[in-house]
Amino acid sequence: MSKCQNIYLVDDDEDLRLAIKTTLSMAGYKVYDFASAEAFLEVVDEGTCGCLVTDLRLPGISGLVLQQQLNERHINIPVVIITGYGEVNDSVRAIKAGAVNFMEKPVSPTALLEQVAEALRLDDSRQEYLAMQARFDDLSPREKAVATLVVAGKTNKQIAQELQISYRTVEKYRAGAMLKLGLENVVELSHFVHRYVHAVTI
Amino acid sequence: MASNKTPDYIAMSDGELYDSLDAVTQRCEEERPHDTGQGDANELRLYQIELEMQNRELSTAAAVLEESRSHYAELYDYAPVGYVTVDRTGTILDINLTAASMFGRERRQLVGRPLSLYLAQGNAQELLSFLRKIPDGVQSDRSAQLEVQTRDQGYGTRDLRFLGVTRTLPGAEFPERRLVIYDITDEKLHQENLRLHSLIMENMREGVLLLRQSDRVIIETNPACDRMHGYAAGELKGQSLIALDSCKVQAGRTMLDRLQPLAPVLPLEWEEEYQRRDGSRFWCEASAYSFAHKKYGDVWLIVQRDVTERHRVQQQSRERQAALAHVTRINTVGELAASLAHELTQPLMTVEHVNHAAIALLQQSSAPPQQQEVLELLHTTERQLQRASEIIFHMRKFIRYGELETRSVTVAELIEASLALTYPLLRDNRVSIENKNDTPQLRVMVEPVQVEQVLVNLLSNSVQAMKKANSPQRHIDIAVDPQGAEVKISIRDSGPGLPPGINEQLFDVLQTDKEDGVGMGLAISRSLIQGHGGRLWAGEQTSGGACFCFTLPVAAREGDADE
């Protein structure tokens, strides 16, 4: 069971929207439904967790444009796009833009539930990633630098030389970083940095 | 005192002469017993008077005779027929003025010359044998007739008929022939015209029928008429018009009905299908003219033409057009398929989800579901299934072959049906529609699906044009404008409009700028509208966008279609 059970549903067909909402609600999800992409864009922010299920064809902003705008705002919530008929070009674009899946109507309740579960799993790891990134961001610049150099295979002595600080100070930063990141050893640190840290300015 | 002078009797008037006669006679009586010697003189005077009187009577008789002679000469000369007297060789002995004018000559030029000189070349020999054959005495035997032609001397020829008798004058060595000449030029011309007319009647392809108005009996037909109706030549003559009317294929007005009005607009014209006795059918186009005939009174002259072939070609072209229209409709549905399929999956998916929820509700073991809750779900599915059937209904109606049958529908219905098909397309392309109609009850006699096809074609053209041009404002305005006997329907969009000067090319076959169109839409739309007696054209682009208009004849009254 994923940690975040929020599903944001965008569809302009009221009956269909309510039908999907029922399916999802009865499966235990918390569903927020919107008649248009614009309405959803008003409430969503970077901290929004869960997944988005949207129709491709919408009055006003279409599903594809919605996805683009979310990307532009760095809201990387998983997106499941539901579409009508034969819109292959659109589906390719949607997948390239990072959609979890592109489902052709009619989408059965089972298939939708599977996709939503998959999307929420993705969201879990995204949330975890975000949390880990946030932890790394909490480190002081010295701690970040030391941690990065440790992962790069440098000894404490080499790091002290490079950063022109004392050996003892390096040890202190290293211990501090390990503590703040909740890690036990160098192997774990190495994994963490490779997974969550892209670049560090030293 | 008696005078010895002899009076001038010649100078006396008739009365004076009688008085003188009386006086002289009396004197003779008185003087005779006395014998005065005057007796001889009196006798002489008496003779003188008597002679004068005799002389006067004679000259009177001569004058009467002369007058009589000139009377008969005039009768002879100016008789309405020609008289000519010839000898046995045909030399003209005498000729009256009428005959002379028939030959175009003066009498003096003719007398003493052979009659054959003035006849057409082939007739000379005939004349000679005719002269030989003429029997004695007056006769009326037709064998003693000869018809000849005058020689053409630059004034045309005349046709003459000779009738002859032979007379031998007392003391004459040979008998002479007296010929009566009738000028039969006009008669001949008349006969020739009659022959020509009957030739025309017999050989013309149109059937001609002459009908007596008083009792509607067929007086005369030509062979084409008999043949057309499947009768033997002359068989129709004398029959009643009912004989033909009873062979009509369709019910409705008979010829009798059509010829009934008191003051018809002439000529009356109609077309009707008939069945012959052998079962074959033909279409007949007829026109009737009324006129008064000397013998038959008022008659109808009915000229008929077999137009079966034309009807066959028309029918064929109607069928072909219907087939073509059908193919185009299927093509149109193909173009609309994406939006229509989407439109169908929508309710289907809704139903699936609602159903899924309903089942889950009913299977819940913990809390029994509220009846109201399930009912609501079922109402939703019902609504959605209706929505799906409606889409299928419109689509199926649209791609059905069509019955080629017209019926009375409101213009509003036609527009609604076409919007039902194009609504998804319009919505997907964010096109708003204004459908303004102040006359929702206005009816037209049409084959509905064909007009819907035209509307769908025009709407989808507008959508494609606005989509292609990426128009920011996408709007279509449908206007219904009754104009007397017809109604104008205009479709105006807010797209880029038509390039100037290509208006008429638009209606050419294979003209398209659509990627998936075959370019027949407008050409077929136009011919479909024309088939309904209307027009279709590219209208004024007052607001920049394209505008297409078409007209349809308005149905006379609501309910007329049931007639």
Biggest interface: A-B, 21 and 26 residues
- Note the beta-strand portion of chain A: 5-15%
Low-confidence stretches of chain A: none
Structural class designation of chain B: alpha+beta
What fraction, in percent, of the residue positions of chain A are helical? 55-70%
Per the principal axes of the C-alpha atoms, what is the gross shape of chain B?
A: rod-shaped
Radius of gyration of chain A: 22 Å
- The helix tally of chain A amounts to 9
User: Strand percentage of chain B, roughly?
Assistant: 15-25%
Strand count, sense and closure of the main sheet of chain A?
A: 5 strands, parallel
Give, in spatial order, the strands making up the sheet with the most strands of chain B. 2-1-5-4-3
Oligomer: heterodimer
Q: What characteristic shape of chain A results from the CA principal axes?
A: elongated
The count of β-strands of chain A is 5
Mean pLDDT across all amino acids of chain A: 86
Written as H for each helix and E for each strand, in order along the chain, the element string of chain A is EHEHEHEHEHHHHH
Q: If strands are numbered along the chain, what order do they take across the biggest sheet of chain A?
A: 2-1-3-4-5
* Major beta-sheet overview of chain B: 5 strands, antiparallel
Backbone CA Rg of chain B: 52 Å
> What structural category do the secondary elements of chain A indicate?
alpha/beta
Can you offer a commentary on this structure?
The complex is a heterodimer of chains A (202) and B (563). Chain A is an alpha/beta fold and 202 residues long. Helices cover 56% and strands 12% of the residues of chain A. Chain A is built from 9 helices and 5 strands; from the N terminus they run βαβαβαβαβααααα. The longest helix of chain A has 30 residues, at 109-138. Chain A starts with 5 loop residues before the first strand and ends in a 6-residue tail after the last helix. The mean pLDDT of chain A is 86. In chain B, a hairpin with a 5-residue loop joins β8 and β9. In chain B, α10 crosses α12 (411-428) and α10 packs across α14 (521-531). The A-B interface holds A 13, 15-16, 18-20, 22-23, 26, 57, 59, 84-87, 105-109, 112 and B 337-339, 341-342, 345-354, 356-357, 360-361, 377, 380, 383-384, 427-428, 430.
